Amino acid sequence: MKKIDLRLNKNEVEFLKNSIGDRLLSISHDPFMFTNTSLQAVKISMGEKEFFLYSFSEPQDYYGSEEDVAVWSIEEKEYPLIKDKCFVDVPVNEEITGIVLVNENQRLRNNAEQLYDVWVTRGIIIELGDHQIAFEKAVWFSEDIVIHKGYELQNNFSSVEAFINSSWKEGVKAECSREMVRLT
After folding, report:
1. Which of 112, 111, 148, 131 is nearest to 36 (CA)?
2. I need a labelling partner for 163 at 20 to 30 A (CA). Which of 104, 115, 117, 133 fits?
3. Cβ-based neighbours of 56, under 8 Å, separated by 6 or more
4. What is the secondary structure of the chain as a DSSP string?
5. How far apart are CA 130 and CA 35, in angstroms?
6. Bridge partners, residue 102, by sequence
7. 163 strand-pairing partners
8. Among 137, 50, 126, which residue's Cα sits nearest to residue 87?
9. How far is 56 from 53, CA to CA, in rounded Å?
10. pTM
11. Closest to 118 measured CA to CA, from 33, 178, 48, 54
């Protein structure tokens, strides 16, 4: 069985956890033209502290073939690749009261044999008192970061059925589940 773990790493999770209680001053992203997405990066500013949520492609095993797969990371530095972006700054100026990670476990089976066990961070939900801002990983290959604002935003994420109902080889069955990890 092939195991792949594309969740945020321990240091990235710890960084997010340490942001709870900070004041989220603004988020910066690509201008929304036709969709509420930002390509490759979102900047999150909290006064003296700021970080980037990146979604860059890198070669990965994608269920039996090597493909460019978008992988998330959290960095405190700005990469030269995005230096010329024309971000739109969206003021927030609210305290971060909680952060929830949405992790997805994707599995493929051929009859009784499990072929793949894949974990991926599907989203980050930042709680701001009575509302939220969420960042969702689009499909595997897309470097887009989907941005949601409102309430109960995990309900706006693409469904697990999108993975389960993908076109798989005959005899291959897909399973998918999600876990909500509240950082404390």
Report:
1. 148
2. 133
3. 40, 70, 71, 73, 81, 143
4. -EEEEESPPHHHHHHHHTTTTSEEEEEEEPPPSSSSEEESEEEEEETTEEEEEEEEEEEEEETTEEEEEEEEEEESS--GGGTT--PEEEEEEEE--EEEEEEEEEEEEETTEEEEEEEEEEEEEEEETTEEEEEEE-STT--EEEEEEESSGGGGSPPTHHHHTS---TTEEEEEEEEEEEE-
5. 25
6. 123, 180
7. none
8. 50
9. 10
10. 0.94
11. 178
The encoded tokens of residue 119 equal 């974990």
Average pLDDT of 81-108? 94
pLDDT band at 184 (very low <50, low <70, confident <90, very high): confident
Q: What tokens does 52 get?
A: 């980037």
Mean pLDDT of 52-65: 88
Model confidence over 129-167: pLDDT tens digits? 999 999 999 887 899 999 999 999 999 999 999 999 988
